[in-house]
Amino acid sequence: MAVAEETYNVSPPIRVPELVSHPIPVAAGTRSGIRVTEAQQAAFRRDGFLVIENLTTPDEIASLCVAYDRLFSERRGWENGDLFDMVGRDSADKALSLPQLLWPSRYEPYLRQTQLFASANAIAEQLLGTNSENTLEHAIMKPALVGSATPWHQDDAFSRRGSGFVEAISIWMPLQDVSPGSGCMRYIQGSNLGPLYPHQSPGNDPRIHGLEVVTPPELTHCVEVPLPAGAAVIHHSRTLHSAGINTSAAPRRAYILGYSVQTRRHSLFSRDYSWNLEKRTAREQRSLQSLPPWKRTWRKVRRLLRGG
To answer: How do beta strands 49-52 and 232-236 pair?
Structure first.
């Protein structure tokens, strides 16, 4: 898919999960004592990512791991498309190479009662302001030894023009120590200041949910970000990022919360990006079939309005 790069050098569109009809406002005055200094905020704007430690306690991390592992072992959310393979064609009769679960707190409400969640809210409020909204929540389980790499991509590529959200961040929180060998995050420093690059499905296969940049980035400014459990790395939705294969003997658990700011009305008639319109995934079909007939019809109409 040959597309001129400058076509996408526009104000950042923001990913808004289709399953969320009403984004969740971030409550002011959270119970977290996390503080982001002016120097840290400036570094985030410059580099496109920022590390903050001590978001929660070791005891809470242990409890979160139990809840997290239960979500994946019981395949919660599979029937309605919330659970799927990020980089492979998912199927009920095979293991997922890189399992991802959208909105895990639907299945484990405990996740939104934690200090980790409160800390993420506090960070979002300080970086984006008090009108920020929680528009994304997902969990990624990178299996031990056999896990796939997360391809280079920008989160904005999952969005579409006209969303009404003009800035977004993701707060990526590991539930165990992560290193380059276990698949820690890696970023192209400063790429948040550049354009949105053309994307495609991994291997150019529209049956796969994930996305990758068509042309892999130059790695001169690549920064790997190992983290201790209970820390977080925050990245801008325009920042190029990826994560390597987990070669360790333990699964790599990551809990991610996304926040956005809306400053204009949502447009139903804005076209989606071609790489999203081409998608024909099993996950999408499960999600569609789980809806009542009228919602199923409305979902199809929305896709047509977007160009698909």
So the answer is: antiparallel
